[in-house]
Automatic annotation (TrEMBL):
Location of the YdhG-like domain: 25-132
Domain of life: Bacteria
Organism listed in the record: Tersicoccus solisilvae
Matches recorded under Pfam families: DUF1801 (PF08818)
Protein name, per record: YdhG-like domain-containing protein
Cross-referenced Gene3D superfamilies: 3.90.1150.200
Length: 152
């Protein structure tokens, strides 16, 4: 899928083919069940993205007061579903935990620096991905973001 211009998550889902819509909707539901409720689900960069709300962090992402600091995104790409999480790259302990938990699924792992690629034709471990979303609370994420910005 080319980057979506959908203004809402509902509109994004409506753009998807029915099979993909069901997979992405199930992934969003699994994340919503476990993620810190302080995050806000919105559209950013053409995909559903959980961000730190601007009322909590008005400086915004990279100093842009119109964009919340991103935490997690999901997207339907041409060949796979994408699960973007900064912890894969920024948090070695979290990445190690995830690799071990993923190995228990018996599924092949396709992981980039911050992107887990999920084959839509393979089983998707929704509970594990929901658990991963819930492992970094909003305050911890903001602390890491501010430390990274200070270390530029």
């Amino acid at each position: 899928m080319v980057q979506s211009k959908a203004p809402t998550v509902e509109a994004y889902l409506a753009e998807l083919e029915p099979e993909r819509r069901g997979l992405v909707a199930a992934l969003i539901k699994a994340i919503e069940a476990r993620i810190d409720p302080g995050y806000e689900l919105t559209m950013a960069w053409g995909m559903p993205t959980w961000v730190v709300p601007l009322d909590r962090y008005p400086t915004g992402y990279l100093g842009n007061p119109a964009q919340g600091v991103p935490y997690l995104s999901v997207a339907s790409q041409k060949q796979y579903l994408a699960y973007y999480h900064p912890g894969f790259d920024a948090d070695p302990a979290l990445a190690e935990w995830f690799r071990g938990a993923w190995a228990q699924t018996g599924l092949p792992l396709s992981l980039g620096r911050s992107c887990l690629r999920l084959r839509p034709t393979a089983p998707i471990p929704y509970a594990l991905l929901g658990e991963l979303a819930g492992r970094v609370g909003l305050e911890e994420h903001l602390d890491r973001y501010e430390q990274a910005r200070a270390g530029r």
